[in-house]
Write a structure and sequence with these properties.
Length: about 280
């Protein structure tokens, strides 16, 4: 039995509810028993661009109605989305900066403490260092902006198929050093850690309390998609024990990405809820 973790730390993501409305998502996860959520900013659920961000009144109403807290916001930022940390074109760099600033402002209005970020990616026709320098500059600018609003930017590693910039603990450590901001924190993505042949304990040993977020999913060797718990080969009890021993006080975002979950996401998160309960 774990001693320091609670069900309120587990937050479904609306990614697999993309074919449903935001109200459907929030109502259903509340009925299951969740009290936390991650807001993935697909346009049909919550729209943000470089010019503005959607009024937060409707989401606040749903949060109150269903007794749900938004613990993190996940902006769309992977390739080929135009807004990412290492974007090259001068005009797009300014628009990307405004895009993420609007995400930070929305998070502040929603009393959301964390914004999930990645390093962005390099063009294969340039050196890694060129893209790295742009990423460090952008993340630094946004961290200084986020500090004013009490929002942390929590960075995860990505696979080498997604980027060549931040793939490992070493890369994250270097990024944190160069950005040098109290707003910069760390996300442990269970699947990416497995693929990089690193360990969750390595993350705690390296980052300590800076590790405040987790992408929590099952995985199976040879499958790129993030799987729901029970559909892969990870040991959920062993993983939760590691977080428990290290007295993790952050959140576990249920980031499932396989399209097979899109039709009946309620059943997926309901099954996950019972699995988590059995292991707490």
């Amino acid at each position: 039995m774990v001693k320091t973790l609670g069900i309120e730390q587990f937050a479904p993501m609306n990614h697999i509810y993309r074919f449903y409305e935001l109200n459907d998502y929030m109502k259903s996860i509340a009925e299951i028993g969740y009290h936390s959520m991650d807001l993935w900013t697909c346009g049909s659920h919550y729209f943000v661009d470089s010019h503005n961000y959607e009024d937060t009144k409707y989401i606040k109403k749903l949060m109150s109605q269903y007794d749900i807290r938004i613990v993190s916001i996940t902006p769309r930022q992977s390739c080929p989305n135009p807004f990412h940390m290492a974007v090259k074109k001068t005009e797009l760099r300014e628009k990307a900066k405004q895009y993420f600033q609007n995400m930070i402002l929305a998070a502040h209005e929603l009393s959301c403490p964390k914004l999930l970020i990645t390093s962005g990616w390099q063009s294969y026709s340039e050196t890694r260092q060129e893209a790295w320098d742009r990423s460090v500059w952008m993340v630094g600018e946004l961290c200084r902006f986020a500090e004013k609003y009490g929002v942390s930017l929590t960075m995860e590693t990505l696979s080498r198929q997604s980027t060549t910039l931040v793939n490992t603990i070493s890369d994250l450590k270097q990024m944190m050093k160069e950005v040098n901001s109290k707003a910069f924190t760390i996300t442990a993505d269970i699947h990416t850690i497995y693929n990089a042949k690193e360990s969750i304990q390595d993350y705690f040993d390296t980052f300590g309390k800076k590790l405040n977020h987790c992408h929590f999913m099952d995985y199976k060797n040879g499958i790129r998609s993030h799987l729901a718990w029970g559909d892969g080969e990870a040991d959920i009890k062993e993983i939760l024990d590691i977080f428990d021993r290290n007295r993790f006080s952050g959140h576990f975002v249920l980031e499932y990405t396989d399209s097979k979950y899109f039709l009946e996401p309620f059943k997926v998160y309901e099954k996950t809820y019972h699995i988590i309960r059995q292991n707490l």
